[in-house]
Amino acid sequence: MRLYRDKRDFSHSPEPRARRGKSGKQPIFVIQKHAASTLHYDFRLQVGNVLKSWAVPKGPSTDPSEKRLAVQVEDHPFDYADFEGTIPRKEYGGGTVLVWDAGSYRNLKIDEEGKETMSMPEALRNGHVTVWLDGKKLRGAYSLTRFRVESGKAQWLLIKIDDNATPVL
Ligand code: MN
Known about the structure:
- With 169 residues, the chain is mostly beta strands.
- Helix content is 7%, strand content 47%.
- It is globular, with a radius of gyration of 16 Å.
């Protein structure tokens, strides 16, 4: 959260300051369409009190044969999930933000009884996350796989999992 705050001047940006997130039963995900100097989609997964975040230049695909680059960015505060608005151009991440899709998600690293076999923080550390998204636009299983770290930035691939081939509850 420190990095998030350090990058922003809240007297000039309408973005929320970090506050404590809610820890409801179902974690949430959000995808914000961000018309910055280059249009991209910010994919965020709630893990505890923060939103783990990736910038996805092309946005998510619903086609399992499409791999989408997702560059991990700093954790955002939970309150960012419903942020929409225009950030002044000179601020970090300037441009207009719209919620493109939102809903809850489930960690798919589970056994037959639905018990978690790997927590989200552990899956993130290991560089392989599989989740089921229950959004308005996106519904189904997605994977995020870290494939390299370049100049301190972790690059992941966001891929739709073929649902028929995925054991889900
Ligand atoms: Mn962004």
